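Incident review: delayed structure delivery

Summary: a single-chain prediction request sat in the queue longer than the usual turnaround. Root cause was a stuck worker, restarted by the on-call engineer. No data loss occurred. The affected request and its eventual output are reproduced below so the record is complete for anyone auditing the incident later.

Affected input:
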Amino acid sequence: MDGDATTLTRSQAARRERVLRAALELGASGGYDAVQMRDVATSAGVALGTIYRYFSSKDHLLAAAMVEWTHDLERRVSQKPPKGETTTARVADVLRRATRAMEKEPKLSEAVVTALLSPDRGAAECQRDVAAAMDRIMSQALGDDFDPAFTRQATRTLGHVWFSALIGWVNGWSGMENVAAELEVATALVLGHLDR
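Output delivered after worker restart:
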């Protein structure tokens, strides 16, 4: 299995992209349970075995879709830097943007967060990729003025709060408005002292 998109030929990358898009469409319309590998293969116009060349499981496939989503967010944040007069405001802006994007596609968001919770090895690699991308995104908001160790710890902590809040939303413990509220509180607790 060669799921690493950086080592694929152009035609392999195109097939992998079609598979991802098909999974995203199915997840957006029906959530986690709607993403069945046979349906993904049919929708993508590939053989079922082709999917397993790139993804070890449904969870790996959906987790890879979350990786693509975070990379897209990273590109957008690079093009349109975080707004705010303070460090806390800039980091909160980034986290709000991430949360709003997920709120627009609730069924798909539920599907990818559920997949990221999987013990599947491919999904676990994607968990690391998502965390690394979120660290880079939040580092853009923090800027270069801080000790790298502090930046790493602050972005990692806030990333954990964000993901934990998303799990609560997916599992019905809280609404999306609570995700935003918890993030604002956590951001103020972790970074508020920098704005004084």
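Verification: The CA atoms of residues 26 and 35 lie 6 Å apart.
Action items: add queue-age alerting; document worker restart procedure.
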